[in-house]
Hints:
The chain has one domain (2-186): SMI1/KNR4-like (3-Layer(aba) Sandwich), CATH 3.40.1580.10. It contains five helices and twelve strands. By secondary structure, the protein is α+β, with helices and mostly antiparallel strands.
Amino acid sequence: xxxxxxxxxxxxxxxxxxxxNILHPGVTFEAVESLxxxxxxxxxDSFKAFYAIHNGQQKARAGxxxxxxLLSVEDIITxxxxxxxxxxAGTFNYHDEPVLSTPDTGxxxxxxxxxxxxxxxxxFGNHLCIDLDPAPEGKHGQIVTLWHxxxxxxxxxxxxxxxLQDYLSALDKGEYIFVKKWGIVHKDTxxxxxx
Length: 195
């Protein structure tokens, strides 16, 4: 995982050196253990190795993942509790029936599943999640989208490592730029109109 962080940090050095200052040091074993105890299963090895180098980013206006924050493990736990509280309160039920999502093949029809672990956040309830409870056609550890107000759930990558490879390759190809107000954003997004 070191090579992925080196690539990401090198991109930041060239395009947005100040972003290096918002990276947390590596996560503690105890923090990862707390997350795994909470969700009742192990996180993927690639996730743990990646977070051992940097535990996501500080809460900042600038996001590292297409304007979204790369959550620390502590923030992942906070977001997980937020979604679990909504689930336990019956928010995802209507007339005693579950509200279903419209997922890609390989994702369960839940609105939210306690084994969808959010690792990015746009601050408005939308995330990329590591799916540790895929549908039979899916793959354990696949990366899926989670929208608070949209039923579609999409598979973004087959694994955390594949997602990293794809995102860093897009950075290297110039598909993303730095915009002071938002952080790293896709060059074609509306967010880059106003720096």
